[in-house]
Amino acid sequence: MSLSLPLEGGCRCGAVRFRAAAPPMLTMACHCTGCQRMTASAYSLSAAFPSEAFAVIAGEPVPGGLKRADIHHFFCPSCLSWLFTQLEGVDSFVNVRAPLFDDTSWFSPFIETWTAEKLPFASVPAVHSFAALPAMADYEGLVRAYGEWAGAASSPG
Ligand SMILES: [Zn+2]
Ligand SMILES: [Zn+2]
């Protein structure tokens, strides 16, 4: 899974395009019923990127999903594809829907969350599984472990 930067991606119709100029910090599959509804599928797939390395380069994403004060889901205004998520008060990362990248060959979910709500058939090859979400204190170690895992996975042999 070699990753060539910058990564670019976009929505179904192409009106919104975005770019990530740094490798992801963590990759995830989320089995929660909220993600099941927003994807109309078994789980969501996302990659967290440092905010300063992520940019929308075409189009104007609009809020959708929960439209709550604490979590912001952004969508394409035309085709309504779910693009990325930001948490209120958390400026350090943006959670981008990984299947929207033009090249997804590098992607595999390192962690899976909300397995307590997963569809019975749904399984992903995540290295770490959580019944709900990891504790806030665990993220630093997970980000470090992901970096080692992704680095090892991309080196030959
Ligand atoms: Zn679109
Ligand atoms: Zn979820």
Automatic annotation (TrEMBL):
Domain of life: Bacteria
Cited Pfam families: GFA
Keyword Metal-binding: yes
Location of the CENP-V/GFA domain: 7-115
Gene Ontology terms, MF aspect: carbon-sulfur lyase activity; metal ion binding
Keyword Zinc: yes
Keywords: Lyase, Metal-binding, Zinc
Protein family: Belongs to the Gfa family.
Protein name: Aldehyde-activating protein
